[in-house]
Design a protein that fits this description.
Layout (H helix, E strand, L loop, with lengths): L3 H21 L4 H19 L11 H23 L3 H10 L2 H11 L6 H19 L6 H28 L2 H9 L4 H10 L8 H24 L5 H8 L2 H12 L6 H18 L1
Amino acid sequence: MFSYVGGLVLFAALLHASWNAMLHGNADRFLSLTWMSICIAIVSIVAIPFLPMPHAGAWPCIVASGLVHIVYNMALVRAYQSGDLGETYPIARGSSPMLVAIGAALFAREHPGVLPIVGIVLVSCGIMSLALQRGNVSKKSAIAAFVTGATIAVYTVIDGIGVRESGNAIAYTAWMFAFYLLMPVLFIAMRGPKALRAPSPVVVQNALGGLVSIAAYGIVIWAMQYGAMGAVSALRETSVVFAALIGRMFLNEQLSARRLLSCCVIALGAICIGA
């Protein structure tokens, strides 16, 4: 896994932490994620005419993943409404790699070796410890974060299966992300069209976050053509290390020695996956 594929997944992890920090740093996360989604959908729809059509076997996965991503977005907004980036992000991301590995074994017949499994467990445990060591995560925030983690696992397994059926990872990603047009529809239904207004700097910032998000998850979808879903997912979730550093540097969140130790456990897990 520590070929150029693994390196790109680690780069995707950095990108993923960056757009989550952009989202968490805004007061109205629902509005921010909606504008991100508008950008994601527009870019995808513009790209689609220039891409080959995904193979027929991929379409059930494209539709299912697109819908699950909308559920994921709403769960993410709910999680960030009641906890800081360093609490909710690790719970959401840490609960998914083992679920992805189990789902891949059940539905894609993937059976990674002992060392990658150890790596997946280390990454998950290290990520979860980042949040749990604080001891002040609210029940509401924890539930929303776990729901977010479950949706991450569901769409990751769906996309891992779908991209292998699609014939073209970029085309698969574009069609799946086109479903993000449902986010502004949902936002307007809940708040009304006037609530979608935002200052130009906010729109630009969130549009940038949307572009970063496309690149981050597009790399992951591409990588799942070549690597086991659980291993790719675990490497992707090392993004919590980047999130902890971003939270410390830009959001004034604490980064204690215990949290640094958790980051080392995550890094050790990543090494096991790549061995």
